[in-house]
Amino acid sequence: MSAKTLSLSEEVYARWEAERREGESFNDVIARLIGKKSLMDIVGFFKEEGAEEMEEVIEEMREKSRENIANSRRNETTMILDTTFLIDLMKEDPSAVRKLKEIERDKFTQNIASPTLYELYVGITLSTKPEKVKNITIE
Fold first, then answer.
1. How far from chain centre, in Å, is Cα 2?
2. What contacts 24+ positions apart, CB below 8 Å, involve 57-65?
């Protein structure tokens, strides 16, 4: 395989460093970032203890969801929040923030569907944000 020499600005080099995973070469990082996305990208994402904690959190969420469904059957209004709305909240869109305040004021039960969580997770993990910002967002 032949090699090419590249010049990088300090900013681009810092972004590359932020994206670099332990043991990855410069070439590996570029190949990962410009390559096709695959579920293989999440293999090993969590260490065992992290996976167990995530499973516990998911089970708690499922239990709350079951409770919310039971409550909604008692004539309570349930709002299922979609991906676009949640992204608008993250961007501090005034109309989304106003709507959330209405939902909370009126004490509507709020749910997020699994596909929405998946879209947010994938969007965050596969984004080109520096790893430090991703960690803050995911935590």
1. 37
2. 65/111
Predicted confidence at residue 1, as pLDDT, reads 67
Q: Under a CB-based contact definition with an 8 Å cutoff, are residues 91 and 122 in contact?
A: no
According to the model, what pLDDT value does residue 24 have?
A: 85
Whether the per-residue pLDDT at 22 is higher than 60: the answer is yes
Chain centroid offset of residue 16 CA: 20
User: How many domains is the chain built from?
Assistant: 2
Helix (H, G, I), strand (E, B) or coil at 82: coil
Q: Are residues 32 and 92 in the same domain?
A: no
State the distance between the two ends of the chain, measured CA to CA, in whole angstroms.
40
Inter-residue contact 86 to 99 (CB < 8 Å):
no
Both 24 and 55 in a single domain?
Answer: no
Range of the domain at 110: 48-138
